[in-house]
UniProtKB/TrEMBL annotation:
Domain YDG: 120-268
Protein name from the UniProt record: Histone-lysine N-methyltransferase
Domain SET as annotated: residue spans: 407-543
Region (Disordered) location: 1-28
Residue ranges with Basic residues bias: 12-24
GO biological process: methylation
Listed SUPFAM superfamilies: PUA domain-like, SET domain
Keywords per UniProt: Centromere, Chromatin regulator, Chromosome, Methyltransferase, Nucleus, S-adenosyl-L-methionine, Transferase
Start and end residues of each Pre-SET domain: 343-404
Residue intervals of the Post-SET domain: 550-566
Gene Ontology CC terms, in alphabetical order: chromosome, centromeric region; nucleus
Record-level Gene Ontology MF annotations: double-stranded DNA binding; histone methyltransferase activity; zinc ion binding
InterPro entries associated with the record: H3-K9-MeTrfase_plant, H3K9_HMTase_SUVAR3-9, Post-SET_dom, Pre-SET_dom, PUA-like_sf, SET_dom, SET_dom_sf, SRA-YDG_sf
Amino acid sequence: MHIADAEVNSKGGRRKNKPQKRTRSGRDINVTLPDIDVDSIVNNILSSYNLMEFDTVRRTDGDRDSVGYILLIFDLLRRKLSQIEDVREAMPGVARRPDLRVGTILMNKGIRTNVKKRIGAVPGVEVGDIFFFRMELCLVGLHHPIMAGIGYMGLTVNLEEESVAVSVVSSGGYEDNVEDGDVLIYSGQGGNINRKDKEVTDQKLERGNLALEKSLRRGNEVRVIRGVKDLSTPTGKIYVYDGLYKIQESWTEKGKSGCNVFKYKFIRVHGQPEAFMTWKLIQQWKDGISLRVGVILPDLTSGAENIPVSLVNDVDDEKGPAHFTYLASLKYAQPVDSLEIFGGCDCRNGCVPGDQICPCIQKNAGYLPYTSNGVLVTQKSLVHECGPSCQCPPTCRNRVSQGGLRVHLEVFKTKDKGWGLRSWDPIRAGAFICEYAGQVIDISKIEELGGENVDDYLFDATRTYQPVEPVPSDANGVPKIPFPLIITAKDVGNVARFMNHSCSPNVFWQPVLRQSDKGYDLHVAFHAIKHIPPMRELTYDYGLPDKAERKKNCLCGSSKCRGYFY
């Protein structure tokens, strides 16, 4: 089935929306459903990228940049459409699947890579990469079928064509056994095993099953993508690329339904980076089944965070970083004076998408800046969160950066860059990671932080930063702060002080304003640029100062490394 058959037509044009009312705490809420041209929004976002780069060569054979580029565009568009659908009332009988809709748009425009089917590794995709939607696998050429679990291609052998398997997705739907990290017992497809509305039958040796049998005989490598359960995601799964496997044997056995099911034993090819095994090991740490090697402190925050932060050194004998006082959030001695009087919102059960009476939504150009699961829709010049004067609860979806850590972070000793920061949990693009906590210092005193007083734990919002995602509607996403903010975390700070610089970062900072009738506080929130697998170091670009400062050698190892940072 073509995806267009399973999704709302992407050429819907303008849709008329009637105003509606929702009642909350005795107050009628006028939810305005604007007349939105989705195609224009999509085209505006796509026009801000140099899509001419996707010529025939890059569509056929990708690289790391083109794969990252496509995934960035896909998730940005998906989050934007999710934000729009958040405001609209769901159509009866129609599932909202912005992932399928965006995938259709990108494929119709030729914005994809590795279109050519192949055996073995896919250019630009690394073992351990994670994906939150099946459509992402298709767009980067890792697994071409959108629904089927077995991907295969035709080969001409002795003037005869036969199909061989090139990729499989193991998502647990066919009684797959995924307990062993290097062995996968994969069940064949067909037989209506997962269909309660149809009669279950014996599986047949055809299509994908036949391709697996041919691959067993030929001994070709097959890409394996493992589906890991994650109830916090829209699909309930995260897909982990576990690398190349070979099929060792096959057989037929009776399934739970009593019908014959094909079974295939996959063995992982040696010499590849760990992927799924890392996930299994982390789960054992969380369950207390095995101990994390090199743990110095199980929680360096001493309970200041709602999730413990491990301090780990499995590199050398250093017992930890220099002493500092842990502070979970940036604190101001007093709010910064504001000429504007702001009494806050009256959304006692939380701000609701489309409520144009809500002053906090008005300040964010008519939309809540976060999706329902707390993901930032797009990088903005400034995000206005609910402040102390607002009547909404701490769980309000416009208070994302105020809720503390959502992932299990680890401060670890790197081999050549001192201490760094990474996560035990997967982090999806746009997700909040942490804020930069410390002490706000006066810009006039920054000149004093040189020579013997050099501060390696300084965040300077006045530096020049490259936008992560160029969006014409919001000043290209360049941070626009109401006053120069400089934070030192040398003596007082949180986990953000350990985040290293990279010229190709996976994290960006977002200025967040919390306003009240007494003034406002400006905070720095860190969000993921792209999907980040567990145990991959978190980094951001430290930016470029207006005046030349002491350069430091950059060891980020990126192909785009400029050789230094400040």
